[in-house]
Amino acid sequence: MNNFEFYNPVKIIFGKDQLKKLPLQIPSGQKIMMIYGGGSIKKNGIYTQVLSALRDYQVIEFGGIEPNPHYETAMKAVEIIKKENVGFLLAVGGGSVIDATKFIAAATLYNAGDPWDILAKNTVVKASLPIGTVLTLPATGSEMNMGSVITRKSTNEKFSFLTPFSFPKFSILMPEAAASLPQRQVANGIVDAYVHVIEQYLTYPSNAPLQDRFAESILLTLIEEGPKVYLNSADYNAMVNLMWCATMALNGTISCGVSGDWSVHMIGHELTAFYEIDHARTLAIVLPGIWKALRNEKKEKLLQYANRVWNIVDGSDDEKIDKAIQKTVDFFESLEIPTKLSSYNLDTNAVNRIVDRFEERKWKAIGDRQLITLEVVRKALEFQL
Ligand code: NZQ
Ligand code: ZN
Fold it and tell me: Is 140 in the pocket of ligand 1 (CB under 6 A)?
């Protein structure tokens, strides 16, 4: 096991009727900006409930955060915050709203130049406004981590940044609010959480049996509970489990002492940036391709995954790996998430465009043990044509 530090200060408030605790989490006298997306919270009543809980505060609103949130929109919020002297940001929605809020919080206090550098050049963030979140969509884990992913619309670039200043002070996780999710978003959430686990687990053995079993237990729970939520997002008993799985998948616990991969996400982000394919859907395309391209390098973990997650015990090693890849593809496709580029009318031009962009950025190799060279990126995507 590698040396590690673990720090996660996010207070989680989970379950039914928890919004009444919202005012207890924010220091009194703060001027709050409530940040939300395209209006789902107005349709399902969460908007009214949040405003009612905050009736003793001065609240201004900033709606219209897009899925795959735009830098351009976030910067409009920064302007208003500076003018209005806002002291606390409350994100209400899914991962995009939370990610945008993290960026807005950092960009407001950034005084080392252009805030875009935080994303494009990974410049150091030295402070952020405090944020809290009300989560309505289980998927990204953003509610309990320090990551954020932002898209610059004008250049079709999608970058992430990480800073401990982005940890929310608290997150209220609302499985009931997620009852209004359309099937497509539920499916996206299941697959995003699944691939988050895989990116931290399926590399190589590193003497971390506890982290491995944590990871496998999240995968098994997603396989068990995910389809129930997919069939009925109002199934509260299943939704609580999906929501907690998604949070646990990316709050730092399973990555302690092990090295990760994240190449599936890095390649997937390009598919979203160029072709606006939903985040999780890009992962479902790229993951099987990476496994096919690196089946030897990832062999031991692929076999462990085949055995412990899919109970595959018969056949040669190669056959077991093939079966595990197929089981994973079948799981994604059972949620109506395609795994081929052709399902999005993409061909080798898309492969070239992504490889060219990595080349322009001078990325020689990414991911697990820096195994994912440009050749591997090409090969992985070609498997998925
Ligand atoms: O915008 P509104 O109207 O709220 O509608 C949203 C949006 O259209 C809707 N929605 C959310 N809660 C709902 C609901 N509709 C009905 N009922 C509800 N209760 O769902 C749509 C998608 O929302 P979005 O926030 O975009 O989805 P998700 O949570 O999957 O977030 C995706 C973004 O997170 C990033 C992705 O790259 C993408 O930009 N990620 C962030 C990560 C992180 N910060 O750690 C890690 C992930 O790997 C990921 O990259
Ligand atoms: Zn993801």
Answer: yes
